[in-house]
Amino acid sequence: MPLLLEQVRVPTRWRERQSSCDGGSHRDYLPFVNVVKIALVNNMPDPALEDTEMQFFGLLDAACGDLPVFVKLYCLAGIPRGDRVQPHVKRCYFGIDDLWKDQFDAAIITGTEPHQPDLRQEPYWGELVKVLEWAERHTVSTVLSCLAAHASVLHSDGIQRRRLSDKRFGVFDARKVREHPLTSEIASPVRFPHSRWNEVRAEELDRCGYAVLTESERAGVDVFVKHKGKSLFVHFQGHPEYGAQTLQKEYRRDIKRFLRGERETYPSPPEGYFDAMATEALADFEKRALSDRREEIMAEFPASAEGAFQSAWTSSAIGLYRNWLRYLASRKAELTTFPAAVELYHQSGKRSAVS
Predict the structure, then answer these.
(1) Annotated catalytic residue 239
(2) Has residue 209 got a pLDDT over 60?
């Protein structure tokens, strides 16, 4: 069953993808009574806004099986939007005031690029706190991505994120620290992309009652959870939703920032992502960029790096989100009259076990 959205609010790229995949038009959620409703609060900056929509839509679509899942897009007013994306936001997104009036089973809250050392100084902080507190009271579970995870633990427990000496960037193997329904049937190691300058640490999370589910020797804490109010908050320091090309796009963006003088150091390439041939070509390009610091040389960015990346995290990502949707369906069945759809979904899960 395809992901469900309101017909008049479907982003163009998703509508075109669905039409090309199944030859049909997008399906509206209104005919479905037993549906899991998710509010996607997308706070990503303009260049990544639409890519992030597609990433989460695609991941949820792959994970939902026969379970009808409806997604509604929201964004914070405190995050400025440029002229290019304003028409898209106006057409496809709802303001946060609408969130208080609707009912949802779950929320997904993304991060954004920080500009202040203390997140509480960001202009959107007050509005984000209201969303987090709403999620505690009104959802079964909430997913928090990267900076949103850091904001959540800071607001709830005063845990400060710590600045890293270099960007944690690449695809990292993580081990399961404990058994949990969210990581059930997912093969080890669990691999997710990371892209961040800050981290929260296991010992501080442990002291405040968080359960770390997966942890990486190279990347630190990966996935961790805690019940807040009536909701299970699921925190990701990584980005399981990322598409195959996302890290490459971010790497090119960071190189351009170096060439324009917006950052002092040349960025390190994402770990565990490019193949050997591309890695060698990128090292040669770095030497060129360090000796000829002009944005124009991006025209010579090695072609061998354009498609030579690995997306080995897909099965882990789909497995974890499939388990999350199962959790939502099961909890909704306990709280409401939702047994038929839940049984159907669990049967479909048995037919297609997570590898």
Answers:
(1) yes
(2) yes
